[in-house]
């Protein structure tokens, strides 16, 4: 098989649907947030924050699955007391999520958290404390996320909009709080205007994007269980990211937070906003299929799990249309009549019995990965992708 020959030129980046909206830049610990930086993926721990070991263990799992920034809740004094150890031992930046009690904002800043998320709608007398918060965050050099939420909008603004958390109301609340921080000379601000309805959420972020240059944290709040939440977040984030809006994302699912990271990562990869890693393309199957495509696709996906190189592998149900339909794949199989035609870049390289398809694809994928153009690997690595060839089975 012929491999690409490097000419010393950097590889052309894959096309995106729109350039990123220009924003001011923030540093959340070591992670840059804003238009000069790759879009980061966040999640939030589900453990009791004061259970330090459980929280650090979950942060380790999230980090291993590709999480860039993690948020922890801080509802009680014992949670605030746990923050210094968690912030110190976490391998990724920790954001403290503060509701109700302004005193925890100061605890989180003192604890060394990389940022603090505040919800002005439910922090008592927040506006009157902004000066102190701006001072403390400014002295510590950390950003604040103003996290407005459709379900807990500032009562004054809710009243003004007849009790409805409209996109205009969400945006007004966020920009009002931001203006208070700006009055005190503090502008290290990211904003979110989350709503559980993806249509209202998209509209709110569109309006916000027009009115400010703050980096935006995207989220559909209370999106639902895994299936429903994945669809809602993918649709809403896709609508915004395809217009260049969004600098960091959090998929909210009623599921293991590792799932949130997987979904967020896949959304960004699908839009070429992150380098694509292993991608399995499989046909939907039809009356021509001579093999159980769903099962084969699952087995191939499982067999290649952990292969972290940009490789597109096609699993096709028949030899009639399979290789042609999967011409863009690096590697693939077209099955039929108890056999599998293995093809590389559209060319059939061998035919194997059905029982050997999965094993053969794994071997071929390894072979291709090991001989992959170093420039492709370097570009992937430069964009934050793990370029090492790693197979776990
Ligand atoms: Fe049908 Fe073959 Fe196309 Fe799969 S590859 S959808 S089996 S025609």
UniProtKB/TrEMBL annotation:
Gene label: ispG
Pathway in which this enzyme or protein is active: Isoprenoid biosynthesis; isopentenyl diphosphate biosynthesis via DXP pathway; isopentenyl diphosphate from 1-deoxy-D-xylulose 5-phosphate: step 5/6
Cofactor remark: Binds 1 [4Fe-4S] cluster.
MF-aspect GO terms: 4 iron, 4 sulfur cluster binding; 4-hydroxy-3-methylbut-2-en-1-yl diphosphate synthase activity (ferredoxin); 4-hydroxy-3-methylbut-2-enyl-diphosphate synthase activity (flavodoxin); iron ion binding
Annotated protein name in UniProt: 4-hydroxy-3-methylbut-2-en-1-yl diphosphate synthase (flavodoxin)
Cited function: Converts 2C-methyl-D-erythritol 2,4-cyclodiphosphate (ME-2,4cPP) into 1-hydroxy-2-methyl-2-(E)-butenyl 4-diphosphate.
Record organism: Corynebacterium gallinarum
Domain IspG TIM-barrel: 23-264
Signal peptide extent: none
Record key words, sorted: 4Fe-4S, Iron, Iron-sulfur, Isoprene biosynthesis, Metal-binding, Oxidoreductase
Residues that, per the record, bind [4Fe-4S] cluster: 283, 286, 318, 325
UniProt-listed PANTHER family: 4-HYDROXY-3-METHYLBUT-2-EN-1-YL DIPHOSPHATE SYNTHASE, 4-HYDROXY-3-METHYLBUT-2-EN-1-YL DIPHOSPHATE SYNTHASE (FERREDOXIN), CHLOROPLASTIC
Keyword Manganese: no
Superkingdom of source: Bacteria
Stated family: Belongs to the IspG family.
HAMAP family: IspG
Catalytic activity reported: (2E)-4-hydroxy-3-methylbut-2-enyl diphosphate + oxidized [flavodoxin] + H2O + 2 H(+) = 2-C-methyl-D-erythritol 2,4-cyclic diphosphate + reduced [flavodoxin]
Cofactor(s) annotated in UniProt: [4Fe-4S] cluster
Residue intervals passing through the bilayer: none
Stored InterPro entries: Dihydropteroate_synth-like_sf, IspG_bac, IspG_bac-typ, IspG_C, IspG_TIM, NO2/SO3_Rdtase_4Fe4S_sf
Enzyme Commission code(s) on record: 1.17.7.3
GO biological processes: isopentenyl diphosphate biosynthetic process, methylerythritol 4-phosphate pathway; terpenoid biosynthetic process
Ranges for domain IspG C-terminal: 279-365
Pfam families, alphabetized: GcpE, GcpE_C
